[in-house]
Fold:
Amino acid sequence: MSIFFTILGIIIVAFIALYVLFPRTLFRFFRNALRRKGKLTEKSIEVGDMTWPYLEGGSPDAEALVLLHGFGGDKDNWAMYAPEIVGKYRLIAPDLPGFGENVRDADRDYDMATQASRVRDFLDALGIEKCHIGGNSMGGFISLRFALDYPERLLSMTLFNNAGVTGANESRLQKEAQDGKNPLEIHSPEDVKRMLAFVAHKPMKVPGQFRKIFYEDFAVHRDLLDKIFWNLVEDSTGKPLNDRLDQVKAPTLIIWGRHDQLIDVSCVDVLKNGIPDAESVVFEDVGHVPMIEKPKDTAKHHLEFLAKH
Structure:
C-alpha cells in the first residue's frame, strides 16, 4: 500500500510540475486523450498549395461525415462528439484555412464562398464524391454555402447554430458588431473566461495556465482572426442566405441551443421555414456549441437523422 501511495504521489507531483512549467505539454496530453477516446487519428493532406490537417475516425468504408468547426475553433472542437459517431460513420474534422494548423495567411481571402470551394477541393483530394456535411457557427455557414454551390456532393446537411441567416431577433453579438466591437476578441488570459461564458450557456472551467495558452495562440494571429471575423459579419448580415434557402436540396437537420448569445434562436424558424422539409431540434440550457455542451443528446438526434438519409 505504501508503494502505491508513493507512486501516486510521484504522478501527482509530475502533473503539477508539467502544469506549472510546461502547460502546453500537459494540454497536449489531455487533447490527445480526448482524441484516443474518440478513436481519432490526426492526418494531413496536400490540397493545392495548402496542407490540411484533419482528424479521422471510424471505418474508411463507412459513409463520410465531414464536420466543420466555427470561428476561433479547430478540428478538436469535435473530439468530445466523436465517441458517439465513429461507430457508424467515417468522421472527418479538418482545420479550416485560417485556423488551427492550416494555412494562416492574412493575404488570402476567407469569405464563405471561397471557404466552401476549398472544402470541395479538400474532399476531392480525399477522393470523397458524396458525404454528409455538418458545421457549427461559421462552419455551418460554410456548410450551407456548400449545399447551395455543390448540391450534387451531399447526402445530407446538419447545421449546429449556424451563421449565414438573419432571424427576427438580434443576438448580443450582432448588436456589439454593429457598434464596431468584436466580442470574440481576447485581450488577456483572464478574458478567456468571459469569452467562454459568452459562447457556452454553462461554460467548462478552464485552468489558468490553459487560459494563458488560448490567449497566446489568439494573440499570435490577432490580425488574421480580426479580418476573418469581420468577413464573417459582412457575409452574415450584409449578404445573408435567407432568400436562397428554398434552393437547398440536401436533407437538412437544424440543431440549436436556445441560450445562444452569438446567433439568436429565432434563426431556427427562418431555416426551417426556408429549407424544404428541414427538421429541427432546440435544446434548453444550451448556448452556441451543442456538440460540446450536450454531446450525447446532440449525437442522438444527429444519428437518428443520418440513419434516414
